[in-house]
Write a structure and sequence with these properties.
Rossmann fold, five-stranded parallel β-sheet, about 15% strand, binds adenosine-5'-triphosphate, binds magnesium ion, IstB_ATP-bd
């Protein structure tokens, strides 16, 4: 399989995680894919920044849990003796039609990472909010904000492909994705676009980088927001 092919999480990734964990003397069973109910100050702090609707989301999809384990396994201490911090790792592209649980799984992944005992600096934005925040205006330093998102160890870029695009937005997304691609920073991307439409909507340079850097997961099913209520 070429490096530019979409790479669903499979046996290869699971074996890689097992190898990394074994090399670090970590018992895979001790790395939570899920979040326990024990009080956890790091998780509680993260939850204050998670939108209320997703504050208790659980990233229970097996590929999401596997991604969390990989990022935890690849965490490194920034200096000798320091606590391990999320550093590099694969990215995850969550695709699917509206209401299938992409944002839920993404925040669930962030909760699981913060609950896993490693340090996690994370940021989250939708593509549309990103453009609103970066629109040049007096007194704001958009370049600095863009770099803060580009360098943040873990980024959730929600709803990619839903915002109206222009040359300016294409350049911004390219710079954001390219920086994270170059530095191999774990990025959670959600999109309503079908995988085959990514290139047309985002341009070849962004789609090519996403193809290499992300593991892909397509959520299916009905719109959970409209699910019939049981009588
Ligand atoms: N696994 C789950 N368990 C319980 N509730 C869920 C689950 N997944 C999603 N939900 C709920 O379903 C609704 C829709 O989920 P979510 O917002 O994640 O969808 P989405 O795929 O991001 O949709 P959109 O493409 O419109 O942004 C939300 O109320 C969310 O809390
Ligand atoms: Mg969403």
């Amino acid at each position: 399989m070429g490096v530019h092919q979409p790479r669903p999480i499979g046996e290869g990734t699971l074996a890689r995680v097992a190898r990394i964990l074994a090399a670090r003397d970590i018992d895979p069973a001790a790395v939570p894919a899920d979040v326990s109910r024990e009080p956890n100050p790091a998780l509680a702090a993260a939850e204050t920044r998670i939108p209320r609707r997703y504050r208790h989301a659980v990233g229970d999809h097996p590929q999401v849990a596997s991604w969390v384990r990989t990022v935890v396994a690849e965490a490194v201490p920034p200096s000798r003796g320091a606590r391990r911090q999320a550093a590099t790792g694969p990215s995850l592209l969550l695709a699917g039609t509206t209401g299938t649980g992409k944002t839920h799984q993404a925040y669930g992944a962030i909760r699981a990472l913060t609950a896993a005992g490693i340090g996690v600096r994370w940021r989250a934005t939708t593509e549309a909010d990103l453009y609103a925040a970066l629109r040049p205006r007096p007194g704001s330093d958009s370049e600095r904000e863009l770099m803060a998102l580009a360098r943040c160890p873990v980024l959730l870029l929600d709803d990619l492909g839903a915002a109206k695009s222009s040359e300016w937005t294409e350049e911004l997304i390219y710079r954001l994705i390219n920086k994270r691609y170059n530095d191999m920073l774990p990025t959670l991307v959600t999109t309503n676009l079908a995988i085959r439409d990514l290139r047309g909507a985002l341009g070849d340079r962004v789609a090519s980088r996403l193809a290499e850097m992300t593991e892909r997961l397509v959520l299916t099913g009905a719109d959970r927001r409209r699910a019939p209520v049981a009588a």
